[in-house]
Amino acid sequence: MSELTEGPMQFISCHDGRLLTLEAARLATARGGTFCTGLQALDALAPGGAFARGAVHELLCEPSHGTPSFLAMLLAKSASHVEPLAASRIADLASIVWCDPDQKLYPPALASHGIPLNRLFLLRVPQDVQTWAIAECLRCKGVGAVVASIPALSRLEARRLQLAAETGGGAGILLRPAGRGSQVYAAATRWLVKPAPGERTIQRWTIQLLHGHGGRLGQAVTLEYCRENHLVRAVEKLGNRQSQKTPAVARAS
Asked: Of 29, 52, 123, 171, which is most buried by a Cβ count within 10 Å?
């Protein structure tokens, strides 16, 4: 039986037929303390104009509206971005863990939006250990973001996830139903996401900041995604585009 040796954790990936390693400490340093989506109207609502790493962020939605997976994907991708190291371009993204107990996630859809599948890990565990498993993933310094749907949390569980995110340095993106079941939380920001009227090729959501010390509480933006050109943009008011400056635009792919 081999003995475990002390030392920095190594993350291994395969690229072009080669095994590459990256120390967790270096990866955490490359990430920095905050991240932005690149959508100025959305980022401006967050405290300090950016989302905190080492923290939990919650996306709330009415049960009849489904889960805001698209916004969760954008946040996870942004939280996992790391600057290439001078010595090597090992990765542009840290690992993303997506809790998928019902096996509903379609990984090729995430790949089409620029998330490498070799950086995506699907977490499928029994419900009774789900919160524990999510916390363990958040504690890992090689994980940039953990996405999970959690209907309800106890105060102990919410605090445990918060501390785990602080330890690992990544972002917890929790998808939760709005209403009584979401009253207990320990999140840096909380957002209410509602589907908005769209068009044949354009999906829209209204995103409102509900909680975030120093953020623009109560204010909302409209997020648009065009299926034809895969462009994503966030605008402050959908009905007054002509008088606004050109909104920030980003490619999802």
From this structure: 171
Q: pLDDT tens digits, residue range 13-38? A: 444 444 444 444 444 445 568 999 99
Distances (CA, A) of 107 to 90, 119, 143, 162, 168: 22, 11, 17, 27, 24
Number of Cα atoms under 13 Å in the Cβ half of residue 230: 10
| Domains of the chain, earliest start first | 31-191 (3.40.50.300)
Nearest to 151 by CA among 211, 67, 57: 67
Q: How many CB atoms lie within 10 A of CB 26?
A: 15
**How do residues 87-108 score in pLDDT, each as one tens digit?**
445 446 789 999 999 999 999 9
User: Please, is 30 exposed, middle or buried when counting C-beta atoms within 10 Å of its C-beta (0-12, 13-18, 19+)?
Assistant: middle
Tally the residues of the chain. 253
HSE value, Cβ hemisphere, 13 Å, CA-based, for 33: 3
Q: What is the DSSP string of 167-217?
A: HH-SEEEEEEESSGGG-----SEEEEEEEE---SSEEEEEEEEEE-TTS-T
Position of tokens 């967790």? 24
